[in-house]
Structures are given as structure tokens and as C-alpha cells.
Amino acid sequence: KSLVLKGLAYPCFCTAEELTALRDRQEKDGALIRGYFGKYAKCRNLTYEEIEKNIKEGKPYVLRFRSNGDENKRIVFDDMIRGKIEMPENIIDEVLLKSDGIPTYHFAHVCDDHFMRTTHVIRGEEWISSVPKHIALFKACGFKVPKYAHTPQVMKTDETDGTKRKLSKRKDPEASVSYFA
């Protein structure tokens, strides 16, 4: 609610079909970045009256973060394992709450870590690309940004063909035991 009142979040009434058409248009336009942002974010600038009308009509909606990132600017953060990392600022208007009211991982990460007083986030390297959006959300909420450490994935060599794949607790019952032994 606080983000909406500050103008940092807004309801988006786009249907799955409209979002598919948006991705098709971005592909046709040759857009380097794909997602809901800038000229592609049609619900971003709806008036209060339009929003109220859509809600009264019972149109389903998600709540999106109004990113103020600039695709021409870079964000720099210190990863405790990888050192200084520089990436483009987040420009995507990420979904915060799904149409069923359930928060997305990105929003839950920020809220949970703030209220649980998490100071260090240690997670797999596949989450590095999410750091700019997480930092933007922490700052928009007025929360202290935690320190990040991104670990390499633990891989297993397939004995049949020598390829590597992520070690899985579901496929590899010995995963944790053999790794830490």
C-alpha cells in the first residue's frame, strides 16, 4: 500500500494475451531488453479514474513496481565472493503481487529479509541478474540493502557422456552427503 501511495507501484490489468503480444512486438522491434517497461508499459500511466473503473468492473490485475531505472546507467555492488559487479540499472516494472494477492519472489525477498533483519544474503549465482531489481526495491521501500554473496553452482559430471549438470537433491540422493564428505 505504501508503494502505491508513493507512486512507486501501480495496478496492471494486462491479460496474458496482451503480454504475449507485447513480447512479440518487442521481438519485432528488435528490443534488446524484453519485459514490461517504458513505452511498452501501457498500464503505467493509467489515471485514477481508469484504475477505479477497471477495479469496479472486476478486471483482474497484478501490482507492478514502477521502476525509475535508466537503461543507460550502471549499478555497482560488492558481492562478497565475486567482488565488485557492475550491471545495468533495472528498468523493468516487475510484478510485486500476483492477481491472487500472492507476492512474487522478488517482493517476498525484500520484505522477508527486511523484517527478519537479514544482513547477508548467500545464494546461487543464478540470482546475480536479479540484484539490480532487488536493490531498487529495497531502496524504494526505505529498507537497508543487505550484503550479497553469490556462490557457484555445485555441478555433477554425468558418467555416461561427461557433461556437467546441476547437482539435484531430487535426482541425486547422495547430493549433500557426498559433496560435504
TrEMBL record:
GO terms of molecular function: ATP binding; glutamate-tRNA ligase activity
UniProt entry keywords in alphabetical sequence: Aminoacyl-tRNA synthetase, ATP-binding, Ligase, Nucleotide-binding
Matching Pfam families: tRNA-synt_1c (PF00749)
GO biological process: glutamyl-tRNA aminoacylation
Domain Glutamyl/glutaminyl-tRNA synthetase class Ib catalytic residue range list: 2-170
Keyword check for Chaperone: no
Compositionally biased region (Basic and acidic residues): 156-174
Region feature Disordered, mapped onto this chain: 154-181
GO cellular component: cytosol
The name this protein goes by in its record: Glutamate--tRNA ligase
